[in-house]
Amino acid sequence: MRSLSVEDLKPGMILARSIINDDMIVVLSEGTLLTKAHITRLGFLDVPTVYIKDEYELSEAFQNVSAMFNPSTAFVTEYKSVMSTAKGIFDEAGKSGKAPVEKSKNMVHDSIAPMAKQSGAIDYLVEVNHLANDVYNHSVRVSILSGVIAKWMRKSAAETQDIILAGFLHDIGKTRFPQRLIDKQVDSLRGDDLEAYMQHTMDGSQILNSSPDLSEGVKLTALQHHECMDGTGFPFGAMGEENIHLYARIVALADLYDNVTTEREGQRKHTPFKAIDLITSDMYTRLDPKVCVPFLTHIKEAFLGSRVMLSNGMIGIIVRYTNDFISKPLIRITESELIDLNLHPDLQIVEYNPK
Questions:
Q1: Is the peptide bond before 235 cis (omega within 30 degrees of 0)?
Q2: What is the per-residue pLDDT across 177-219, written as a single tens digit (0 to 9) for each?
Q3: Which tens digits make up the pLDDT trace of 42-101?
Q4: The whole model's pTM is what?
């Protein structure tokens, strides 16, 4: 690890420590791969110096040794190795108009399903959610999350694998996106651009419907993952579990979680706790409570023992939750000081570091 001034930073360098502003907001997280936009932003924020990873930390030897002793490093290494396959699948679908189903199933079986089964998968995803946010990266993360949710819902191994496949292929329709939409934020879209964005669900359904080797749930997920339980979604405004397939309801939750916790150009990423707040507020309207309750119950167990920073600058460890599954955690600051965030609505978790 070495310290550099902002003027000496170059795209491609990797942060070794998180950068936090005077308002205790995480500007960029540890492990972020710096882009030109990141460096420009740091210049405007008058950040004097930052810590980046040195050559040894980035070396293959260091990565191999780290993987031996750190399961999260092994997870990230496996995740990166999947990217070329995932990109190839989406590129092929974009050119041929058909989904490479066999390749997708093999990747899910050999790589993604084993990652989703790992007990620390939710934590390990924190290590990769700063990586490129192109459609295939997002789709791999959503597929892993969908597998974790299916596991927490106690789905069979076969159904879990099918749900993971649905998560990976849910955005396959974006391979038909016009170039002008590729790098745009969804919230900024209006008029024809918004209509073109919404069309990806129909396009995905058309691409997958041509394959007889996919289940109805996988096909419907591409069509329905933006539908909402209260009928406010698209493309058809479907309402309720009788009209929205279970796979689509699971993938919708995974999609929301990844969108909130992933860094995007021009948009600051949030902690998993911000995602939990949004899921809690939407679980009886847009989302399915039958999917949300097991997710919220189990994800909090995954956070126990993790180090967090609060908006007042205090650093502590998550030690427990109250019995209410929508409760906020209790943070141990020192041996004698315990902060119950349920009693301090003014305090927020601004940085989360897996245990």
A1: yes
A2: 877 777 677 777 889 888 989 999 999 999 999 899 999 999 9
A3: 777 777 788 888 765 555 554 554 544 455 677 888 888 899 899 999 999 999 999 999
A4: 0.81
Angle in degrees, 0-180, between the axes of helices 191-209 and 216-224, rounded to the nearest 10: 180
User: What are 160's two structure tokens?
Assistant: 């879990």
Distance CA 47, CA 19 (A): 8
195: in domain? yes
Q: Which domain holds residue 186?
A: 69-299
User: Is there a domain that residue 75 lies in?
Assistant: yes
Specify the DSSP element, H or E, that contains 76.
helix 71-96
Two structure tokens written together for 341: 């965030």
Beta strands in the chain (DSSP E): 2-5, 19-20, 26-28, 49-52, 307-310, 315-321, 329-334, 337-340, 349-353
Cα(20)–Cα(231) distance, rounded to whole angstroms?
Answer: 40
As beta bridge partners, residue 3 has 51
CATH number at residue 30: 3.90.105.10
Within a domain: residue 63? no
- In angstroms, the CA 16 to CA 1 distance is 6
Is the pLDDT at 324 greater than 80? The verdict is no
**pLDDT(113) > 60:** yes
Q: How many domains does the chain have?
A: 3
Q: Is 321 found in the same domain as 237?
A: no
Q: Are 140 and 177 found together in one domain? A: yes
> Is 115 found in the same domain as 208?
yes
64 domain residue, yes or no = no
Tens of pLDDT, residues 239-276: 999 999 999 999 999 999 998 888 765 566 688 999 99
| 329 in the same domain as 200 | no
Domain-ending residue, one of 58, 79, 97: 58
